Amino acid sequence: MNNGAPSGASGGCASGSTRKQLTEVELTWIEKKFEHWIRFGRIAQDRIVTRKTRVVGFQPGAIFAFVRWMANDYGTISSRIDVLRAVAPGEAYTTLPFVRPGGEILLHIEGWSKVNEVLSAIDSVEAAGVDPCEAAPDHWRHVHNRIAAGQSPRPYTMERHLAWLKRREIEG
């Protein structure tokens, strides 16, 4: 974990103070070879770097899912999904490739079959009528732990979501 270390990356057209507050994620798309995308999350800033690369930024506290997939001539060689909470300046974080400076990891899963399970869990949250970036952070930790243990996660229901909203209101 790092504690507010500078990212060392600069450039682009955003002001320095705005960029320092955002968690930036580099997205690259080379069809059927190297694909990074955001599955859910509220993007606060979007900057095109090249035809195949862009950088998106998230406000502190925002929750988002970042998918990384790579293949070669013989098929998939790597697939990962991370659900992260963007951190505020000075807050502790964990570094991840393509995420600057890093974030609080709520879920980290590798392997296409397990990544598919996470994508299904995200779909079920949406089916319950909840935006996945508004779901309780503890739900994403639960999904991580259950899938890592080879078990199915409990579904996220509207009742659980309302309980989370009340808890967040009380903690305030």
Feature tags:
globular; 172 residues; disordered N terminus; alpha+beta
Which helices and strands occur, and which strands form pairs?
Elements (H helix, E strand, L loop, with lengths): L1 E2 L12 H6 L1 E8 L3 E7 L4 E4 L4 E6 L4 E10 L2 E12 L5 E5 L2 E12 L1 H16 L9 H12 L9 H14 L1
Antiparallel strand pairs: 1-8, 2-3, 2-5, 2-9, 3-6, 4-5, 6-7, 7-9, 8-9
Tell me, rounded to a whole number, the average pLDDT: 90
What is Rg?
A: 17 Å
Strand content: 35-45%
Low-confidence stretches: 1-15
User: Biggest β-sheet, characterized?
Assistant: 5 strands, antiparallel, barrel
Query: Topology as H/E string?
Result: EHEEEEEEEEHHH
Alpha plus pi helix count: 4
Structural class label: alpha+beta
| Gross geometry | globular
Helix content: 25-40%
Distance N terminus to C terminus?
26 Å
Strand line-up of the largest beta sheet: 2-3-6-7-9
The beta-strand count equals 9
Q: How does this model look, in words?
A:
Strand 4 and strand 5 form a beta hairpin. A five-stranded antiparallel barrel has the order 2-3-6-7-9. Mean pLDDT is about 90; it is low at about 1-15. It is of the alpha+beta class. The protein has helices spanning about 15-20, 110-125, 135-150, 160-170; strands at about 1-5, 25-30, 35-40, 45-50, 55-60, 65-70, 75-85, 90-95, 100-110.
Write a brief caption for the model.
The chain has helices spanning 16-21, 112-127, 137-148, 158-171, and strands at residues 2-3, 23-30, 34-40, 45-48, 53-58, 63-72, 75-86, 92-96, 99-110. It is an alpha+beta fold and 172 residues long.
